[in-house]
């Protein structure tokens, strides 16, 4: 595909559930190719499946796309030249197009009852035949069918699939897919309540919205030939079709299912809102999903959005299934956290500390962030690692204060001597204090690790923290001494 030709692409989710990483990747790829070529990216809400409609899903879709940094040029809330962009508001368009197909002999009304169709399926199953419509209403004379429709008889509209010859559907990732027409069912295009199904509505919308490239999930491959036949029946030019690779479970076995998500720790990251809640960056999520089905080369793995827009290409999409690797998401999140300017990371961390109940001084947090940036993989880890900076007091029981291979009395002696060393300094500066504390450890016959472990627990209340001496410098002499004395009091009760 020439990259200098502006494209029109769409992301067309069905608002029937939560926003899944597969949908996020589809939206991202469409967005990238639109912006790479100076084209347009549309958001279309395919909400004709009223039975499965989730009233919260559309807002989750939009909020997730905005968080990911994937805005749309045309859509339900921004309008555009092909509005409306919500299928439930376009029913008259589909009705007119269905009648056009009937009038030109490419579709027909079907009056078969659900009972007859059920019996037909059972007969075919017993005969081990593929289930498909037997064409009873296809054989009705057009005038008779029209009269029954005019009389108000309940019916659906079926596509009149050619029964001879072959149909060739060309997928950008897989090449030509050729099927015998007699194997293609006469699919329902419009249900008895007048609501169109995907096969009609999506094809009509893609044509009328002038979509040039359709990037969608591979679940549509089985009905891909039908969609080509519908385009041909209308006499329309087809878009470029690309059916994206399937996501597999982390084990590599079985398709990743959003319906089973939530049953494990890994599954928590299947939904974009969960990724946000778990402290992942949108940049990392985009980087991660982009590389599940596409690669630039065999070396480059770090991509910002601008890099993806520059380097993405449809020609390098891969049809083979991709196992979802959640450890790679952690890896990319760490890379992107470390790549952020300190001020940017500070701004992103403020809400996390505030939601944990801390009153955050942003300027102070900006001094703390460099100690965290190389050590956290997700934003939520910053609170766990550095919340003590904003706590009035920290508490550590005597058992957790006792140094390695030491008892409470030895620990108290070491901590008291360390407090005296700290008090000898006018203010805490990491390097000179570290030298004095290491000398104290030698004098006490302790390793630096033993002494610093005691100090870490006394000052931070935790076994893992940012670098100890730098943390003590940021805490300040008054706070450090107060916490050391509180720890000594705790040891005195042991």
Q: Can you tell me about this structure?
A:
Helix 12 (342-355) packs across helix 14 (379-386), helix 17 crosses helix 19 and helix 18 packs across helix 20. The protein has helices spanning 21-37, 57-68, 91-103, 114-126, 142-150, 198-208, 224-234, 272-277, 282-290, 305-311, 326-339, 342-355, 362-373, 379-386, 398-401, 408-423, 430-444, 448-460, 468-475, 477-492; strands at 8-11, 40-43, 107-110, 156-159, 166-171, 175-180, 188-190, 213-217, 240-244, 247-248, 322-323. 46% of the residues lie in helices and 9% in strands. The chain has four domains: 90-244, Glutamyl-tRNA Synthetase, Domain 3 (Glutamyl-tRNA Synthetase, domain 3), CATH 3.90.800.10; 258-339, Glutamyl-tRNA Synthetase, domain 2, CATH 1.10.1160; 341-389, Helicase, Ruva Protein, domain 3 (Orthogonal Bundle), CATH 1.10.8.70; 393-494, Arc Repressor Mutant, subunit A (Orthogonal Bundle), CATH 1.10.10.350. Strand 1, helix 1 (21-37) and strand 2 (40-43) form a beta-alpha-beta unit.
Low-confidence stretches are 259-267
Mean pLDDT: 95
Per DSSP, the total helix count is: 20
Question: How many beta-strand segments?
Answer: 11
Helix content: 40-55%
Tell me the Rg in angstroms. Answer: 32 Å
Looking at the structure, the CATH topology of the largest domain is: Glutamyl-tRNA Synthetase, domain 3
Overall SS class:
mainly alpha
Q: Beta-strand level of the residues, as a percent range?
A: 5-15%
**Main sheet makeup:** 3 strands, antiparallel
Please report the distance between the alpha carbons of the first and last residues: 74 Å
Q: What is the oligomeric state here?
A: single chain
């Amino acid at each position: 595909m020439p990259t200098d030709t502006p494209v029109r692409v769409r992301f067309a989710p069905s608002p029937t559930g939560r926003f899944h990483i597969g949908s996020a990747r589809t939206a991202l790829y469409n967005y990238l190719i639109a912006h790479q070529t100076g084209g347009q990216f549309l958001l279309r809400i395919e909400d004709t499946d009223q039975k499965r409609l989730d009233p919260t899903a559309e807002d989750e879709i939009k909020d997730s796309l905005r968080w990911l940094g994937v805005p749309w040029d045309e859509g339900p809330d921004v309008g555009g030249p092909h509005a409306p962009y919500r299928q439930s508001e376009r029913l008259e368009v589909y009705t007119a197009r269905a009648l056009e197909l009937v009038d030109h002999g490419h579709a027909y009304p079907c009056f078969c009852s659900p009972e007859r169709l059920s019996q037909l399926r059972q007969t075919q199953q017993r005969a081990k035949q593929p289930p498909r419509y037997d064409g009873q209403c296809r054989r009705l004379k057009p005038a008779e069918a029209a009269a029954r429709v005019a009389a108000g008889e309940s019916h659906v509209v079926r596509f009149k699939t050619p029964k001879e010859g072959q149909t060739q559907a060309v997928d950008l990732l897989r090449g030509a897919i050729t099927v015998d027409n007699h194997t293609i069912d006469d699919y329902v295009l419009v249900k008895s309540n007048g609501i169109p199904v995907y096969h009609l509505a999506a094809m009509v919308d893609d044509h009328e919205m002038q979509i040039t490239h359709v990037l969608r999930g591979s679940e549509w491959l089985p009905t891909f030939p039908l969609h080509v036949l519908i385009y041909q029946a209308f006499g329309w030019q087809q878009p470029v079709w690309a059916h994206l690779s399937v996501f597999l479970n982390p084990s590599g076995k079985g398709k990743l299912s959003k319906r089973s998500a939530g049953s494990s720790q890994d599954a928590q990251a299947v939904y974009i809102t969960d990724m946000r809640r778990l402290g992942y960056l949108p940049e990392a999520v985009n980087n991660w999903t982009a590389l599940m089905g596409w690669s630039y080369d065999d070396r480059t793995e770090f991509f910002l959005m601008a890099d993806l827009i520059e380097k993405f290409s449809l020609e390098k999409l891969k049809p083979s299934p991709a196992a979802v690797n959640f450890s790679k998401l952690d890896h990319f999140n760490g890379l992107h956290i470390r790549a952020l300017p300190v001020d940017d990371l500070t701004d992103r961390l403020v809400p996390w500390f505030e939601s944990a109940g801390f009153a955050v001084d942003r300027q102070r947090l900006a001094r703390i962030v460099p100690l965290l940036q190389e050590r956290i993989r997700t934003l939520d880890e910053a609170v766990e690692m550095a919340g003590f900076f904003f706590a009035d007091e920290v508490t550590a029981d005597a058992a957790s204060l006792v140094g390695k291979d030491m008892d409470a009395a030895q620990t108290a002696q070491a901590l008291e001597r360390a407090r005296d060393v700290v008090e000898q300094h006018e203010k805490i500066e990491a390097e000179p204090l570290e030298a004095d504390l290491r000398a104290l450890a030698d004098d006490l016959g302790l390793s630096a690790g033993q002494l610093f472990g005691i100090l870490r627990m006394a000052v931070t209340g935790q076994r893992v923290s940012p670098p100890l001496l730098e943390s003590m410098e940021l805490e300040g002499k008054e706070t450090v001494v107060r916490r050391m004395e509180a720890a000594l009091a705790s040891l005195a009760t042991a």
